[in-house]
Amino acid sequence: MVRHVDHLLSFCRRAYAMGMPANTEQRYWTPDDVWALPDDGKRYECIDGALLVTPSPNVPHQRVLGRLFVVMASYVAAQRLGEAFLSPADIQLNAGNLVQPDLFVIPTLAHGHAAGSWTEIKELLLAVEVLSPSTARYDRTLKRRYYQRSGVGEYWVVDANSHLVERWLPTDERPEILSETLTWQPAGAPEALSIDLAALFGDALGA
Description:
globular, alpha+beta, tt1808, chain A, 31% helix, single chain, 6 helices
């Protein structure tokens, strides 16, 4: 077991040095493989056998994510939609895959009880990824396709450098590009959430 973990760790270090996240054809990764890796501060995910390794985010990334979470958490609570969370989190919408979206919203669970573990979460109203140089490719391709086919209500790719959001619905072949106002009203919400993107990016990034 120790030798197996050492092998996985050695691979991850080599891949990280090459600019991860990465998709490797050398092996098929499973959630059990990911959980066997050491807790080293990086985020590990696996989708369709591909291992994604994300280094610690930079300060602008966290500022944008933090501002967005404050707005989202307040709205979700007021509309009684469920709960908003930030990763780290181990989300398995289906067997064999493990993801950790930057920000995500879960619906109210059956009988109205609060989730006691990540394993209870099998549905997302929203998944959000804030782009980093090392994650942009996979946020827009592998992860996007995974969230779409898993029936996630909406998937947002937040591009802080360009001050815009790419919104994907499950059946979209191309995203809706939003640079001024982002409106979200999931099923069951009496009122819509309206986010002034210029204000959000300006507040977070000082632009």
